[in-house]
Amino acid sequence: MAAADARLRCAASLAAAVPPLVLIACIGAWGVDVPYWDQWVVAPLMDQLFSGRLDLADVWRQHNDHRVFVPRLVMLGLARLSGWDVRWEMAANVVFAAAVFFATLRLVRRERRWLAAPAVSLLVFNLNQWENWAWGQQLVVLVNVAAVAAGVALLAAPAAGTVRLGGAAVAGTVASYSFANGLLFWPLALPLVWRSRSGRRPRVAAWCAAAAAVIAFFFVDYEFTAGSSSVPSSPGDLALVGAYVAVFVGAPVFAYDGKLAGAGGVLALTAFAVLGARLLRKRPAAAWPWIVLAGYGIGSGVVAAAGRLHLGLELAMSSRYLTMANFFWLGLLGLAFEAWDAAPPPPRVRTLARVAAAVAAASLVAGCVWGGVLFREQHLDRSKARRALAAGTLDEGLPHIYPDNRIPPAYVEGLRRHRLSLFRDVPPARDDGRR
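^ that's the sequence the OP posted. Answer follows.
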């Protein structure tokens, strides 16, 4: 029996290693060192950094609806080391994904970790999130989710003292100043702070004070983007929001089909409600960390719906969103493990659960293959655009790396002057008197 268990654990460890290794290989083969779309907005910061003119106000500046202060610091640090090779940012995304992986496994009971590891790995490192892996700018998302996962892991400890509380507050601050969804962490994590038996009131008061300070500072000199959000005003609007959230949470498992994602999302949300309610009655301490994780995925879907619903339900399938929606599935997975341990289900339910798990795993693998195809396609497109940009022949007939490929000349000139990104190996231009 011991030998069989050892073989199973070894097989599970090997299976868990496959997704990150595949991801790293794909980034190495298909990552393209050229700024893409919103990443060009960082080009002026790079010019200021390498000219010695950068200050914190520039880094703090709002990006769309977000404060991306922490990811910008990471980007600038990596740029200083690499000459702004954006593939370093892609590699950093994998590192932050690894933080999500290990933080999630910390929440799983020790005796179950070997069994949970392959499923968590397949979710966290899946190529179905190809846009986040192919686009260094998506550090804003990966830093955010890594901070949220770390914060939940800190607060979930049985004896989460003052140091862990402070660490979770730092994690919440990093999440909030990486992506706007990070603000959700503060109210969602409150039950984890509340459940402490000793010093509950001071801890809750400190948490609420920290949340109020971080949120208030977030909105200092904040400009609301016109049309960036909408409030449902009719039952029809609420139904559309519900449909959007269902597709949003179902997309990580059914990334290749919107109808399957919607149906899978409804079924998964139902299972979450049943398991969560059941476990809260029997093992509330074990249930809350997973509910918080899943809640972050659901809340992110609601936030996305508020800002993007008018663009259609298909946007809920965006691969950029899957990294946040994954949290719902990680939470559901944890609840399933805890519910199984609390009261093993009858044989029929066990069989149904195993079938559902097998279908989900097969679908995740299919999504990985599908994402890999799209990852390679972007490699071909961006490589072509990169060559044209380096040669000064980029036009609207080539794949876009900026809206209409009309990159502000000052952005390109700044990179060329400091020999950054795709211009690192290009000989400096002759001195024409412009310094």
